[in-house]
Amino acid sequence: MYEGFDIWAFLAGLPLGLVIWGIVHYFTWKKGKKERLFDERYKNLHRHARSISWKVMTVAILIAWFIVMIVEGAKLAFFILTALWFIHMLSWVVGAAIVNKHH
After folding, report:
1. H or E segment at 82?
2. What tens digit of pLDDT does each residue of 44-65 get?
3. How confident is the model at residue 84 (pLDDT cuts 50, 70, 90)?
4. Residues 6 or more apart from 72 whose CB is under 8 A from it?
């Protein structure tokens, strides 16, 4: 571990950050629902944004995977990126199957 890194402060701060995020998210969602901000246009915009984000992440994983193969070879980082790539692509297959089943 790094000197001066307090694992217990990190482990306490992580759930605290998630709780704060949850509270802010709840009140933002509640206000948005009241003002009708989450209509069909909102859903379509965010669906398209997630699609673009997914494509960018695919390219980023491939670039990182290539760099790790050149710099480190077949070590831990390579296998972690391979697992991340597999999960990323598997989630796409499962998502496509669910959407095709409903439409």
Report:
1. helix 76-102
2. 888 888 888 888 888 888 888 8
3. confident
4. 78
Using the 8-state DSSP alphabet, how is residue 38 labeled? S
Provide the whole-model pTM.
Answer: 0.57
User: What is the torsion angle, in degrees rounded to the nearest 10, for the CA atoms of residue 86, residue 91, residue 94 and residue 97?
Assistant: -110
Separation of alpha carbons 43 and 101, rounded Å = 20
Q: Which two tokens stand for residue 78?
A: 């390579």
d(CA 24, CA 12): 19
Burial of residue 77 (CB within 10 Å: 0-12, 13-18, 19+) is middle
**Structure tokens of 86?**
């597999």
